[in-house]
Fold:
Amino acid sequence: MNDVGSKNRRRDEQGTSLQMSPEQMLELANKTAELLVERVKNLPEMTVWEGEFRPVLEEQLLEDPPENGRPAEEVIEQTVRNILPVALRLDHPRCFGFIPSAPTWPGVLADFMVAGYNVNQGFWLTASGPSELELVVIEWFRNWLGYPKGAGGLLTSGGSAASLDAFVAAREAAGHPERPSVYMSVQSHSAQIRSARIVGVRQNSIRLIPTDRHYRINLDALAKAVAEDRAAGFRPIVVSANAGTSSCGAIDPLEALADYCQDEKIWLHVDAAYGGFSIITNEGRELLQGIERADSIGLDAHKWLFQPYEVGCLMVKDLGTLERVFSVRHDILQDTIWGADYPNFSDRGIQLSRSVRALKIWMSIQTFGMAAFVRAVSQGLNLAKRAEKFIEDSSILQMLTPAMLGIVCFRVEPADKVFDEESLEQINKDVLSRIFWGDRAFVSSTSLNGQFTLRMCIINYNTTWKDVHETLTVIVEYGKEAVHQFCSR
Ligand SMILES: Cc1ncc(COP(=O)(O)O)c(C=O)c1O
Structure:
């Protein structure tokens, strides 16, 4: 046995043990905790993004698994040197790209504890405490959404899994038709399209409906597409509405869609993965009015409920619609059937073995209280409005959509000069690349009606107005440089 190996493991007689001594376990856990806390402490001073080209990383990491181990401290050090930091820091206060995710510390600890306890929460029998906790958290969500008693759901790996489970339920509720079709706006998230494909809808039956000028689904166009499809022998199985598009935060007209889907007997799913948890604020509740009429709702707690990846949620108005399709009996699992009062979460979605996702939500809400969460979400909504005001007051920036659910879409477009669309796109791409390589903030882009758009998503509870202001000031500075360079070509 080599020295290093013996330090790491308390080997049994055959030398096959994967155990560690309690002292060593504690020492490593403390070291890991210290590294993580240090990271959180230093985050505002770090760059927002770190990335590397593949050959460099392969040089550092690509190797056969070692036959003999090495000190665990060394492994952890390599992890925090070469692996985990080489990434976008989505919880950095000046990360405004894509959809930032800033987990609470109790949420992080919950995931650590869940891994340590290693509970399989597929069944009541294997995990009654954790199953009850998931019921509790789902009940909180049910109340926030205004869903009726009896509605319920499950926690998923994220918004994609939530919509996939929803589309399966919708397909079955429609009688699993031969020629299914689904409807969503052109602004819908690619996860919705993927879900439709997975449940067997052909690409040309995934109808992407145009939007109005506020990027909300056009109801007349939807009705026309449905009528045409029915006449051609298709069976519409789901309309997937947006409660916060990831591009610009647009919310489809939920009440009108609920009326329409009720009349047409089509399942209404609401993809609220981005905007859903704004419902804990008064403003969000007003914006999302009508969401409670949907047959299903997808949410993402690893976005605006400040949880570590991976936790999303699917809520359905009628739990039976999930259980009828996902519950499949198997002899080896016959002991797990305890009856209707003792749900097996594996009967509600695609996962059999499941982790305890509810713990992070429960622990962080227990620790800080709902008032703190409401303040944190409201802060994002308000900072986006302040950013909008800054942009409107600037002579070089133009808003492209009003601030909505914490998102601002805008571009560099000097008030005193006229550029065609192509030139504006080039200038703004130049600005984006300056931000990207400038290390002071991270902003990403999107496309609205074919217009290249800078986009800031401001939902991190650690982000202050100073962070937003600094970032916008940098964008103005880069914008001036990019315009100057473009004009002097
Ligand atoms: C509106 C919307 N729907 C669905 C998804 C997919 O969710 P996830 O990445 O958690 O699978 C996202 C992710 O950003 C989203 O913003």
Observations:
- Residues 19 and 25 are 9 Å apart (CA to CA).
